[in-house]
Specification:
alpha+beta; 5 domains; four-stranded antiparallel sheet; 13 strands; about 60% helix; elongated
Length: about 725
Amino acid sequence: MDTRYQNKITAVLLFVLSVSFLSCAMLTGFEKKLPYDENNVSYFKNSDEINDMVIRYAKNLQRYYIYYNDFDVELATQKLTEIDSYISTGETKSSRKSASRTFEYESQNTGPDRDGSSYYTVDPEELYNIDIKNMTVDSILEYQAMLSEAVTNYKAVEEYLRTNDDFHFSLYSNVLNRVIASNTENFYKEKYYEVISMSDDLFNINFNGSKLNSAFTGNGLICNISIPESTSATVKEQMMLLHSRINYNQVLSSVYVPLCLIGCAAAVISFLWLYNRRNFTAMLSKLYRSYIRLPLMIIIPLVFVFARISVFYIKYSGTALTKCFVDGKYPLIFLMICVGGFVLMYMCLAIAYVYNIIRSPKILLNSSDFKFGYEMISDIKLAFKTQKPTFTAILIFDIACILFTLGVMFVSLLGFNLIHTLGVLIFSYIIIFFLIIAFKAIVAQIKLRYYLQELADGNMDTIPEQKGLFTTSLNNINNINNGLKKTMEESLKSERLKTELITNVSHDLKTPLTSIISYVSLLKELNIDNKKAEEYIDVIDNKSKRLKILIDDLFEASKLSSGQMELELMRSDIIALLDQTMGELSYKIEESDIKFIVKKPPAPLLVNMDGQKMWRVFDNLLNNILKYSPKGSRAYIDIKEGDSTVTIIFKNVANYNMDFEADELFERFKRGDSSRTTEGSGLGLSIAKSIVELHGGTMNIVTDGDLFKIIIVLNR
């Protein structure tokens, strides 16, 4: 790898490392110290998870020992049985009569997982003391549902307290002066981590129509809850997480951590400045140039937003970094570092930009916002010049919408709600984006109409070069006539010169080549008694014949490309033509050891064609198969008859690597054998395709790995 490239990569990596150090320093500098430590921690109050668990536990204690204190589940069950029996007798009153309600009860599930904070006008035990004989059917069914719900909730709460091993509780009666309920043998002698009273402010929440922390004291009871040493693994895990949180927070909230990180960042930057200053300054310069290319309508709002995000993080984040470490949310930590680094770098670039503007206010005149403003003014002038009132009015309205949206966006930056500000900012950017697109489209239409009229009036040089969206057509319209004419003239001239050259060369070569072939024939008839001379004469004979074939191919290709070749069409049997061609090449087929498998209709297949030219097509294709197929392989020829077409398919396996597009073989002088060790001019397939197309047919090549397939479709 090049040394300069390595130095650039090193500079970028070290710069990113320094920014990461500064971002970490900023995050740890904002991390607040917890108001508790290992010595005064409260698991009930300082662990959110244990807090939720104990409140849920306390709610169910209140349900069972206060709300359901006088509830007799057996009597309730008997009452349900009585209702079922009463309904089955059919003695209930009609629901059409208006019967007065003898009770009021808000139906709500108050199982162990529900809040149960709604107010009830009757106690649960009163549900099975109501006389149902004077009630309507609808009232009885509603009453039955409520009583069934109360039984279900009672059993659910009872099961929850019986199976829960997170906490232990003790319920002491001031009237009886003794413990009346507990889920442990000796609550006050067992070993525990922490004990809390139900009268604590932790339980100062509304529940079942009253405060949870006064529910027991109001009934002359004292309830205490503890975390015993035998508590569940879930509670112990939360206790360990709380201790981990304390330990992490002691490190992350320490003033020494950001100082060390700032020192590391300073060391990295110093190293870059001393040993890689050129790349470091070039990178900063490039970064700054990219920054100032941003529109001011993006730079300024983002400065305000990032400043408010920083203030919001300082004010409300608290121990966010500590929580992420405790919860193992390392991707979130990485994201916070990246966002912090980006905000830090963005704000530093903004400060540098403001500093340079103060030094040289002319910088603002070169900003994209001012340039866009100049373009707007010139476009409005052009719109008035075109005298198109509709487009002009739409353009002015679009500009007014852009300015109004910008005003709303900047006003929203002064708002107090950060989420609302971000929402307005994003929405404003989306609206401005589409308004600018609409503006560009309208301006492009105005310019297109104006300059088309100018061209129609003969002013060919009035279109200046355009930049931006919707300008491609406008830039091309001035060159379309001259460019097209020039291109066509050059193409026709090139093709004419090429055809003339091939024709002339082919014609000039034919006369001496004919003489060479004739004299070689005469030499062979002399029966020269010299083996070397005979060998040389044979070589000359073979090469001259090959050269004659090449010249004939060139001449024929020239005639085909220039449109000078004419066809002598007549109805001929294409199957017989193929058999004739294979018969003429039978000696080559036998030498090649290639097995040809031909599938053809049993009856003759007449096609309107030039037999001589189509024979040339088959000859070229069969010779290609013989030259480019491995010995001992198979070649397939399928002739398929359609309603109005005939399809001939030649398939063989190539003995070379086809590392090119199949259609390239139709180009002149293109050969599958790139080493050109085999005989041929590279014109065979091009000539064959031209002949087929001259017949109004198509010829295509399909490759699949080493499989080579040519498909010819002819009209009948």
